[in-house]
Amino acid sequence: MILLGLVTGCLNDDDAVKTSMNDVSSRITGFSSDITGAGASFSINGSHMDEVDRVFIGNAVIAKKSFTTVSESGITFNVPLTVPLGENEVIVVYPGSDRAFSSIEVVPLPAISSFTPYSAATGETITLYGTNFEIVEGVKLGAVDAAIVSQSASMLKFTVPAGIATGKITLTSDAGNANSAADLIACTANPTTSDCADGLNLNDGFELGATDNFDNWSKYNGGTYMVQTTTASEIFRGSRALKVVRDGSLGTGEWRIQLASDLITTEAAASYTVYIWAKASVAGGSLRVSTNPDAKYTANQNVTTQWQRLAFTFSTAGGNAIATTDTRVVLDFNGNNTAVTTFFIDDVKLVKN
Fold it and tell me: What are 90-129's pLDDT values in tens digits?
């Protein structure tokens, strides 16, 4: 009697409400997965499936015109976004009074909120941040499987496999698949792009050094404000990054917190760009890049709370071309000096344009 009440409550005008129905649940032989999620691709397998008019999952209806594939032995469709979580009854509506009944558990799909780094070569580790990663069973880059290194509900790490092209990261699970919004740039296939090219400076990722010191870099001013971080969410690439803790107490002058690279061989009057991956705990602070010994400067750029690649260019056209053949890249961190925030800095590299 309960099932009959559900059926009569769900039928539309073009299916006259039946006072009796023919239970053909034996036609359903299985689903594509034991669980599913809103928005996931889902298949029902069985017999006479090409005759199905519509399917209900809970109170959500999937009309025949919304099926993505149809054959005698199966139909496929996307689970409606309105389907509630938990156990839901599945009703397969055939012509006339034939109905097949089953049930499916609807769970939250994995969702990728961000990942780092955005570019990587074969063998590097990618860290994903998001939700519901505990149900993830695999990672794909195109058609290539990637090996999962570790995973929790909110963080997943995998190793970049060989033979991939730039594209979305796909997480696979019994509930369905989830794709990253941004592409992962494949550096092995694109080694000369600005995201992948090696910098002219040494230790561009701050991986080398002991405690709060960084090999090939010198703290010129405000050294106590610059420390290392090994916290995964504060690192763009690798296992270590620079952390700049600003308390708003310093006076004006970007130079009051300043880190300088070792001397780099440069070509006078040539065009160069310094790329920096940065994010802040709180928006409001800014940074710039200058040079030593010729004291060329770029404009300040604001640092947001999401990882972003900042680009600072020195060129004749910009009026700040490097004038020396041995040059230090200097990072000036005290822009908007009263802003209380923390910068996370990684992958700083000087590239000739």
Answer: 999 999 999 999 999 999 999 888 888 989 999 999 999 8
DSSP for 85-120, written as a single string: SEEEEEEEE-STTEEEEEEEEE-PPPEEEEEE-SEE
Ranges 36-40, 46-50, 181-185, 235-239, most confident: 46-50
The one-letter code for the residue type at 50 is: D
Give me the residues paired with residue 149 across strands: none
Which pTM was predicted? 0.68
Residue 276 domain-assigned (yes or no): yes
> How far apart, in Å, do the first and last CA atoms of the chain sit?
75
The neighbouring-strand residues paired with 103 are: 89
DSSP-based three-state secondary structure for 254: helix
In a domain, 175, yes or no: yes
Q: Which of 119, 204, 115 is CA-nearest to residue 164?
A: 119
Nearest to 32 by CA among 242, 175, 180: 175
Structural domain boundaries, residue 296: 217-352
Structure tokens given for 311: 């680009």
Range 143-161 average pLDDT:
96
Q: Would you say 349 and 274 are in contact if contact means Cβ atoms under 8 Å apart?
A: yes
Q: Which CATH number characterizes residue 31's domain?
A: 2.60.40.10
Same domain as 139, residue 52? no
**pLDDT for 347:** 94
Identity at 14, one-letter amino acid code: D
Look at residue 242 and give its three-state secondary structure: strand
What is the SS3 string spanning 172-214?
ECCCCCEECCCCEEECCCCCCCCCCCCCCCCCCCCCCCCCCCC
Taking the CB of residue 243, how many other CB atoms lie within 10 A of it?
A: 22
Q: How many CA atoms lie within 13 A of 188 on its CB side?
A: 10
